[in-house]
Design a protein that fits this description.
The chain is α+β, with helices and mostly antiparallel strands. It has two domains: 10-267, Alpha-Beta Plaits; 278-573, Formate dehydrogenase/DMSO reductase domain (Formate dehydrogenase/DMSO reductase fold). Helix content is 42%, strand content 10%. The protein has helices at 75-84, 122-126, 153-157, 179-182, 189-193, 286-307, 324-345, 364-387, 397-424, 438-465, 471-502, 504-514, 518-541, 546-573, 588-597; strands spanning 61-66, 94-102, 105-113, 132-134, 141-143, 164-166, 171-173, 199-203, 231-234, 242-245, 251-255, 263-267. It has a five-stranded antiparallel β-sheet. Strands 8-1-9 form a three-stranded mixed β-sheet. Strands 4-5 form a two-stranded antiparallel sheet. The longest helix has 32 residues, at 471-502. It is globular and about 95 Å long. It starts with 60 loop residues before the first strand and ends in a 15-residue tail after the last helix. The relative contact order is 0.12.
Length: 612
Amino acid sequence: MYKVRDKEPAYAFVPQVDAPQTNRYGKKIELVDKTDPLAGKSLNINGDTSVSDNPNRYKQHGFYFNADNCIACHACESACSEKNDLPPHIAYRAVGYVEGGSYPNYTRLNISMACNHCDNPVCLKGCPTRAYTKFAEYGAVLQDPDICFGCGYCTWVCPYNAPQLDTTRGHVMKCNMCVDRLEVGLKPACAAACLGGALDFGVIETTPEKREQLKTSIPGFPTTDITHPNIRFQQSRSLPREMKRTDAMPLRYERDQAGASEYRSKLHDQGEKPEWNLAKLHSREDPLVIFTLITQTVVGVFLALFLAPYFGLGELSRAANPVLQPVVLFSLLGLETFALALSTLHLGRPHRFYRAFNNLRYSPVSREVAGVAVFFNLLASYTLLSSFPALFAWLPQNLFIGLQQFCAWAAVLSGPLAIYFMHRIYRIKARPFWNHWQVLTSFYGNMLSIGSVLVIVIFAAALLFRGQSFSHLIEIMRWPLLLGLLLDGTGLYFHTRDNIRAGGEAAASHFQQRTRFGKTWMLRNMLLAAAGVLVLALSVTMIDGGWAYSLWLFSALLIIFSALISRALFYVLVIPTTMPGAFFWRNRGFQEHARETGLADMPQVGVVHDTH
């Protein structure tokens, strides 16, 4: 058990008070009955098998933050970091702030935030390795770094910056509610260290002494609908109608009318001019840019290769291309192997990749990995069966043909299904820029357009080499190609329109798209439009020959470059419903500055270089 100091002050202990039966979300505060078989078990903290006699052990606890009292001394951060022995670039608890008003009546609101040990922990459901557990003891959501393999998906889905991906160690870490202290009746280290009486802790829905409010929101705090967080606020001081962030996020918080109490996130348009910023078009997720595009391309090419002969396109059949078709199939296998290797090496602990299958019930990451793995193995099996039939001469002919057809048709079904699972990864409420159906049209659009245009380029070259016309090839393959471009373009149009209408983080992402990366964004749009016009013209005129092939090759380059830029923008533009940072801490702009100027080489700055 945790050792209680001699003469521990009274304020360091969790008060024993009566609590209601349910919280404001309708969830029972007593998580298990004391007679339940789950009760009375040890948490085995540091190998200690003792069981606490805390009468509130099985009640949901939570933090209480009084924004009126916070002086931004960062004592809570320091106490947390010291207790958990955290490196400078990791903080389970962070103090950010928003500001508003005009001189001399300028107001600053400080916000101290850690994990809120939510009723609906999206980190737990999203984690593919099942590294998270919500305990009946105190309602704590705990994460086991030894199980985590460092994909960082929990950092995407959490609206509060709670899980922290330590790229130097290769795993995620987060607040553990100081359950060792709770077992002996002490508050978490952060709450016990608060100098201004701003941060408190206890059974949820109970008001601390000399406090009045139990609000669920303050300016800068994301909507509670996503996770039902176990934190309550007091904020009674008068604030300006508009509060602004001091970090690099182009966001502000505004009351819709003077008498309203709720602040909503809105775009903070600073009138920036469009730029290229090609050097900043990369991110830690660059391997995912390549992985997603290659997987969608491989699926698209295979679908065209196998299904086109059923639509009368004999030019793609094995009989017409006894050498080229196996070469294409093995090339697809090689490309997908490279993509899978990239996505695996992207993990903090690549050697534990097999844990990605641990949460098929809840995690979209687990389902995507399973879907891609099934498609890959079916593609490999079909490639071997169709390319080297002599190796399987020992099989009965009917069984061999049946097995070959099963692998092919199963791959036809599993490929698009894997891409659907892939798109579900990005439908995250905490990332409004991603949470749009455009992700699906983009992924399927790339599958159809890139896959179809590559099939045209590859097999038209073979037909030209043999002195044959490729007009029939165009006549069939133009339809999935045009459909793919239409899906992609339509999705992008509605995505832009809906982001602007939605406001908040979605509009802020689009604002950065048309300012910070404005010229790059316009280049993507022009490349996609030019590709669409050129493909449509070539499809209508049905011209043939060497010049026509050159134009098709140019169209393929336009489509591929457009997709690369679009996918890179997809990752760098997203602004989560995150907590406000400070000027130096949890500020994306300062982190970029530190990496560019070399400040990141100094550990005390709290910024590390990107590892991918």
